[in-house]
Amino acid sequence: MTRDMGLIRELLLKLESLSSPRGIRHIDPHNPAVSVEGYSVDQIDYHLDLLREAGFISCPGTPPPLTGIMFHRLTWRGHEFLDTVRNPEVWRETKSGVSKIGGASAEFVWEIAKGYVKHLAKEKLGIDVS
Predict the structure, then answer these.
(1) Which long-range contacts (CB under 8 A, 24 or more apart) does 80-88 make?
(2) 103 falls in which pLDDT band (50, 70, 90)?
(3) What band does 14 get if pLDDT is binned at 50, 70 and 90?
(4) Looking at domain 5-75, which CATH architecture does it have?
């Protein structure tokens, strides 16, 4: 299965609202709270695991035996990534840039998004963020 950065972004947006400062919950890929139109349960399950591996979400304890994750909250890294790609315009331009170069690692996608945010700061605020 291939990694889909669009699905990564969508899942982070959904998981952000499910974060709990105190609780840990099992997030099953069948749960409508994490369903994303156009994606299968298997794809969602796979990408939930990728989010855990990337350190974007905190999943303490033992993983469930079959599917899903034990979810606590987004990590600092997860919030940073999501805050960079949250704006639909930034995400659209990031995806466009990635498609022009034929794909990129998650870290490079993040760098492209950061570059576009810096461009917007210069264009809209007159601030040169280097």
Answers:
(1) 81/12, 81/56, 81/110, 82/9, 82/12, 82/13, 82/16, 84/110, 84/113, 84/114, 84/117, 85/9, 85/110, 85/113, 86/13, 87/117
(2) confident
(3) very high
(4) Orthogonal Bundle (1.10)
